[in-house]
Amino acid sequence: MTVNLKRIYNEAYKNDGKRVLIDRVWPRGVSKEKAQLDEWLKEVAPTSDLRKWFNHDPDKFKEFKKKYKEELKKNEEQNEAFNQLKDWTSNGKVTLLYATKEEKYNHAQVLKDLLT
Questions:
Q1: pLDDT tens, 17-59?
Q2: Cα 60–68–95 angle (5° rounding)?
Q3: 41 by DSSP, 3-state: which?
Q4: Distance CA 3, CA 45 (A)
Q5: How many domains does the chain contain in total?
Q6: Is residue 49 within 8 Å of residue 70, measured between CB atoms?
Q7: CB 96 within 8 A of CB 111
């Protein structure tokens, strides 16, 4: 099982494995053709309220991780999406795609930690 993280604005490679966009909102300026997605699993993303509260603030990241993990357990839609992601990662390489410029403090990092 391999889980990689990549900004959707970066070039797609054949060795990315299954390419899954994990943002709730489609990224600006990226065509569906350029994205070269296998799946768009927007349901696994944090809720809009949590995302807006966090706003990629490094000082809030620890609390964000805790709240996001709780959401993934309690929110049925998010939980189902996370389980789908787990299935895909157990069957091969998956690259989680996200749009934010913040590469260290984001929900993709939390998902990768939970999956590996």
A1: 999 999 999 999 999 999 999 999 999 999 999 999 999 999 9
A2: 105
A3: coil
A4: 16
A5: 1
A6: no
A7: yes
